[in-house]
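DM from R.C. (forwarded with permission)

"hey, sorry to bug you on a friday — could you get me a structure for this? deadline for the figure draft is monday and I only need the backbone to look sensible"
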Amino acid sequence: MKVKSLQLFLSFLLSASPAWAEALKINGSTTVNLPATEAAEVLRNEKKMEIQLDTQGGSSGGISMLGEGLVHLGMSSKHVSDDDRKKFPKCDYKEIQVGEDAVALVVSKDVWDGGVKSLGKEQVAAIYEGRIKNWKDVGGPDKRIAFFNKEPGRGTWEVFVHWVYGDPKKAPQVSFPEVGGNEEGRNKVASTKGAITQLSSSWADGKTAFALSLKVGDKDVSPETEYIASGEYPMSRPLFLLSNGEATGTAKEFADFMLSPRGQEFVRKHGYLALADLKR
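My reply, with the result:
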């Protein structure tokens, strides 16, 4: 009887497994994850969809896991590069833009209160390369600069080095402490005197972490909606869902929801620009 009961139990598990196997798996950018999480909650409740969301490895993790066939959708705050496509030649990457974001250089309150409100590209490069080590050298307080670098390969880091150096491959090797997701980066800045990091601008709360303007020509341009929408702010970036070929089934249903008016409101809710907000 025990053997028969075990066989019945195993049979039940096998019969139930297809539903579990069909769970929609999504991984990638912590930036895209915010509106995607809310979209997933709606679809779980209204469509009874089983959705598994993760942010392992950020944008690069989403790209590689989709390329390896481990997820149905990737989330990315950067374009899929030619190197990515060569690394995963069997994956037909399709970028589905769901919004637009800006990367900001975010500083701690003591730096902001000390007078640093904007930086130029040359100043940023000098800080990143260790040629400027004290805030007083850029008009701020006499404090050592504590730079927390985003992990290379993260979408935020790539947008930053693309602006500073023109190509991520030209960025020098540095030995700053590294941070992963947006929350970790903001917490490090908020709790460290003299701190600065690259961060999605929507995470700069204006209380413990402050977004600097960037000098563009003779003008200081802040990461505000109007300048991101017009393309005037130089460190803006698209936000993507990624599929292998044209999205189908539950992956398409999820992507379509993110592009719907309800999904786009989730994008706006978290401080990003919806597609209808772009002016270029």
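R.C.: lifesaver. The CA atoms of residues 96 and 241 lie 5 Å apart.
me: no worries. The longest strand covers residues 93-108.
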